[in-house]
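step: validate -> pass
step: tokenize input -> pass
step: predict -> running
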Amino acid sequence: FGSSRLPKLRLPVLATHSGLAAMADQAVILARVAERAERYDEMADFMKQRVEAGGALTSEERDMFSAAFKNALTGRRQAVRIAASVAQQENAEGREGNSELAQGYRSKVETELRGICEKALGLLESTLVPSASTSEDKTFYLKMQGDYYRYAAEFADGDARTTSAQKAEMAYASGMASAAELLAAHPIRLGLALNYSVFQHEVLKETQEAVKTAISALEARNHLGDLADQDQNDAMLTMQLLEDNLNLWQQ
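step: predict -> pass
step: emit ->
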């Protein structure tokens, strides 16, 4: 096999202190290695260890926590959609046995998906949201809480779907209240509005409310100058997504 050239992964020097602080440092270093190796389930486990070690997450650790769980879910969400489509197609063409196999595979992946959502939500609800000391952190974690209840609702039925949707709504609404303390064009505030509007459109089927949320968020165009350059770039990217969704929803 040929060797591939990868950019060097620069890890911080492991601190010599002991106890929970050392455990936290080790967990973050291992999470970085797992991320580089694209082992996202393990990255999520390492970031879980970091949260359980105590202490507020840095902004980098916060982003790593989010990325770990998001990447662990992404492939599974796509797999569930594909399996559902295959099952439907096979059933329509009279191959019920094949359809049942595809449905069984879908159920297996959905179980994994629920487990990841439950793990993320457990950490958010027990530790990260209650201990958030800034409006930025609180908004970030409430947005993530809403997102993971939204993901759970996407593939649930009946009472389970209703319950997950209600909890997502509460988390997003609390996040919007917290975000009011941030700059209007703050990337986290805009990202929350983007995901909340998608939830309103896709899960609640309240497209007019989604449109209102998106239009309100886009009023921050006039406040981009309040941000640092990198934050301006992030904000503009999110605004473009909001505009793209509006164009679809208002057709």
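step: describe -> The chain is about 75% helix and 0% strand.
step: cleanup -> pass
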